[in-house]
Design brief:
Blueprint lengths: L2 H22 L1 E3 L5 E8 L3 E7 L2 E5 L4 E7 L3 E2 L3 H11 L7 E7 L12 E12 L2 E13 L5 E5 L3 E4 L6 H10 L8 E11 L1
Helix pairs in contact: 2-3
Amino acid sequence: MSKSILSSVVLSIALSVSSFNTLAQLTLDKAQSTVNFISTKNEHVSETHTFDNFSGDLSEQGKLTITIDIASVETLVPIRNERMQKMLFNMSDYSSATFTAQVDPALTKLEAGEMKRVTVAGEMMIAGNKAPISFEVMLTGLKDGSINATTATPTILSASEFNLDEGVAALQKVANLKSISKSVPLSFSATFSR
């Protein structure tokens, strides 16, 4: 076999492997996904907030990584957005929050219409502090090979788990509130596309 033919064969194999790896990887589709949390102030006033910028990948081996841009927190009150970024999340030092987990690789290959309820256990990092966390998730296979993951029940995040108590107290003081809950329900709907 000539060197040119051998080179062509090697290149074709390399491109095929590269294409397979690209197809195997699932990427979070931000346009079809949402991340929400609820805060409660003065004991009875609850409000829904979002993060509008996030990204993520789910490998064929089941490695899941989600990154949330802290600057994208949206409470519909600009000054409150700014206070959360600076006083709660310490955005100048920690610009993002992350969630990492290892899931069953078989879950990356759901057939269209196939649904599974699973517990996804992993680790969340917020403002430089890590804590174990689990999500009850309903997975649905979509027609194009994509997968939708939606929280079956909200997950409660505690400020204490991430050393955010002082930040909550600072927000309460600056806004002149009687109280701010130190536990918040987090929910999401995430579509991963090939």
